[in-house]
């Protein structure tokens, strides 16, 4: 059985440079953390924002953005 992170890593390998990618709620939001180097994609969050990135480190969160999939 794969972990959440392993599933996200595997999904990230499917991304191709220049794609627009809609990230759903849950495991798909982890995919942003594993985008391969050199691959530039435009991410759409579950609430419709374009240009989101990986999950922020503690104290780097944006209070105006909420991750509906966070635990």
Question: How would you characterize this protein structure?
Answer:
It contains 1 helix and 2 strands; from the N terminus they run αββ. The chain has a two-stranded parallel sheet. It has one helix at 4-12, and strands at 20-22, 42-44.
The number of E-state strands comes to 2
Mean pLDDT: 80
Overall 3D shape: globular
Largest sheet: 2 strands, parallel
**Count the helices. How many?**
1
| Helix/strand order, N-terminal first | HEE
Search tags:
71 residues, little secondary structure, 2 strands
Topology overview:
Elements: H1 4-12, E1 20-22, E2 42-44
What's this model, at a glance?
The protein is low in regular secondary structure and 71 residues long. 13% of the residues lie in helices and 8% in strands.
């Amino acid at each position: 059985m794969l972990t959440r992170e392993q599933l996200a890593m595997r999904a990230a390998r499917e991304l191709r440079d220049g794609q627009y990618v809609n990230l759903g709620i849950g495991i798909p939001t982890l995919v942003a953390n594993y985008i391969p180097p050199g691959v530039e994609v435009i991410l759409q969050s579950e609430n419709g924002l374009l240009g989101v990135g990986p999950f922020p480190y503690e104290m780097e969160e944006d209070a105006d953005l909420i991750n509906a999939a966070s635990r």
